[in-house]
């Protein structure tokens, strides 16, 4: 079974025993044996592995993993060092620069955000090579909805960054007035100019965290 090595293990233990999740496991066993699937099977839950429940300050929700070789490693929008920075992440960096005057990073690995409490969770956690949304209907949305519902019940405030239509669907799960919902267009080149650029979500998140007695996120990527 899944071992995340932090408090998510106990929190999600019951979820990992439910019929829908056991069905996902069976589908993935077959898919990884017969198809090229991303990310690597040991990286599927990196978002939860890198950001324990009690550390979560900000949640960024992506769609599904990158579907080209070497890109996906379990954190939405992130790619490992040495991999070309995808267009959506380039636009995230442009907004980060405009919002906080931070330099444009030379790589796309966002693990430093994860270790500071930024949960970078895709709506769907696996994908077939070159087939975006190919695992959209296998049950992942049930699982990621549950993660959001669990965070919603927490007293400690959380910032939810909801970029694009897929992420906005999660908004209705966030009902606790303690939390902050920041909604904008997706950073994809197809939609970034429709409301992602200029959203200032990074400074708004840090202002909210500071107002609630939490250390702001250092968004700079070294």
Question: Can you describe what's shown?
Answer:
The chain starts with 7 loop residues before the first helix and ends in an 11-residue tail after the last helix. The mean pLDDT is 96. It has 222 residues and is an alpha/beta fold. The chain contains 8 helices and 6 strands. Helix 7 links the parallel strand 5 (159-163) and strand 6 (180-184). The strands form 2 sheets. It has a 4-stranded parallel sheet. Strands 1-4 form a two-stranded antiparallel ribbon. It has helices at residues 8-12, 19-34, 46-50, 87-100, 111-114, 140-152, 165-168, 201-211; strands at residues 37-38, 58-62, 118-122, 127-128, 159-163, 180-184. The longest helix is centred in the N-terminal third of the chain and has 16 residues, at 19-34. It is 32% helix and 11% strand.
Offer a concise description of the structure.
By secondary structure, this protein is α/β, with parallel strands linked by helices.
Overview features:
222 residues, four-stranded parallel sheet, alpha/beta, two-stranded antiparallel sheet
Which secondary structure elements does this structure contain, and how are they paired or packed?
Blueprint: H1 8-12, H2 19-34, E1 37-38, H3 46-50, E2 58-62, H4 87-100, H5 111-114, E3 118-122, E4 127-128, H6 140-152, E5 159-163, H7 165-168, E6 180-184, H8 201-211
Parallel strand pairs: 2-3, 2-5, 5-6
Antiparallel strand pairs: 1-4
How many helices does DSSP assign?
Answer: 8
SSE pattern, N- to C-terminal: HHEHEHHEEHEHEH
Task: Classify the helix fraction into a percent range.
Answer: 25-40%
Global Rg: 17 Å
Termini separation comes to 35 Å
State the low-pLDDT regions, or none: none
Order the strands across the largest sheet as they lie in space: 3-2-5-6
Strand-residue fraction? 5-15%
Q: Given the C-alpha coordinates, what overall shape results?
A: globular
Please describe the biggest sheet, giving its number of strands, its sense, and whether it closes into a barrel: 4 strands, parallel
Taking all residues together, what is the mean pLDDT?
96
Determine the structural class based on helices, strands and strand pairing.
Answer: alpha/beta
Beta strand count = 6
């Amino acid at each position: 079974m899944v071992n995340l090595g932090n408090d998510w293990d106990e929190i999600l233990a019951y979820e990992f025993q439910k019929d829908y999740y056991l069905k996902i496991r069976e589908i993935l066993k077959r898919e990884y044996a017969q198809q090229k699937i991303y990310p690597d099977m040991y990286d599927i839950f990196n978002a939860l592995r890198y950001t324990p429940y009690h550390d979560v300050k900000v949640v960024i929700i992506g769609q599904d993993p990158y579907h080209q070789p070497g890109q996906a490693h379990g954190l939405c929008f992130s790619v490992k060092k040495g991999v070309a920075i995808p267009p959506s992440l380039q636009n995230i960096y442009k907004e980060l620069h405009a919002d906080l005057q931070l330099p444009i990073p030379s790589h796309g690995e966002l693990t430093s955000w994860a270790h500071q409490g930024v949960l970078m969770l895709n709506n769907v956690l696996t994908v077939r090579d070159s087939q975006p949304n190919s695992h959209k209907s296998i049950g992942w949305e049930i699982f990621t909805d549950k993660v959001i519902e669990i965070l919603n019940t927490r007293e400690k405030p959380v910032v939810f960054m909801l970029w694009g239509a897929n992420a906005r669907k999660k908004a209705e799960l966030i009902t606790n007035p303690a939390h902050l919902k920041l909604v904008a267009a997706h950073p994809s080149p197809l939609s970034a100019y429709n409301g992602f650029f200029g959203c200032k979500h990074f400074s708004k998140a840090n202002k909210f965290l500071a107002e609630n007695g939490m250390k702001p996120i250092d968004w700079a990527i070294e």
